[in-house]
Amino acid sequence: MGDHRGRPNWHITKSDRERQMKAMIFDADGTLLDSMGLWRQIDRAFLKSHHYPYSERISEQVETMSLQQSAGYFQRLLRDREMLSEQQIIAELNGLCAGAYETEIQAMPSVPDFLEAAYQAGYRMCVATASQKEQISRALSRLGLLDYFSFVMDADEAGAAKTDPKIFLACADRLGSRPEETWVFEDAPHAAQTAASAGFLVIGVHAPGGKKQEELLKKCCFHFVPSFEMLIDQGKNLKLY
Length: 241
Description:
- The chain is built from eleven helices and six strands.
- It has helices at about 15-20, 35-50, 55-60, 65-80, 85-105, 110-120, 135-140, 155-160, 165-175, 190-195, 210-220, and strands at about 25, 125-130, 150-155, 180-185, 200-205, 225.
- A six-stranded parallel β-sheet has the order 3-2-1-4-5-6, with helices on both faces.
């Protein structure tokens, strides 16, 4: 399944690989949570409130950034119109999305079953997110999923967006695993590529950006699946290979 070029130790057997793997790192928005559409709505609403024309290109840019970096990006966009601090922008963005995480956002299909299977298999798990960890934690708690994870780390805490492997390496360190012992689940090609380049085994899940995004994920991931449903068998056991 998938293109394994450029990754270490592909020659070892499936059973050896299964014994080696210890931990899992999950993206939140678009991977665990059905929330990617929300963030484009927030980008649009924020810019409209400041009388700046929205384009899809803007959302594509900020999807690769941490919240702090997104605030800096919006600050630069608006500097000829008004002077806003990064903290003001962050507060506005958080205000626009807070209610949705607390009351509306749902889990992606088959996520609860997959997490239960991973828990039963003994994996240590965490969340690595570009969104604020408090919001993600509230959504996961409401959905009954937060207790599966040892912790939630956001890009601001890690000190880098997902174009830098720092957040993945920090998560693995806290989980007590090495990159080659750790699965990463991502829907964003830039984040998947970052993790794969750092030696993690990456599974691309979902492709909200369509065929182009799916092809980009296939190029850098151990394999790609459109849903977590394909990663568990009928007996609700993991099926990662």
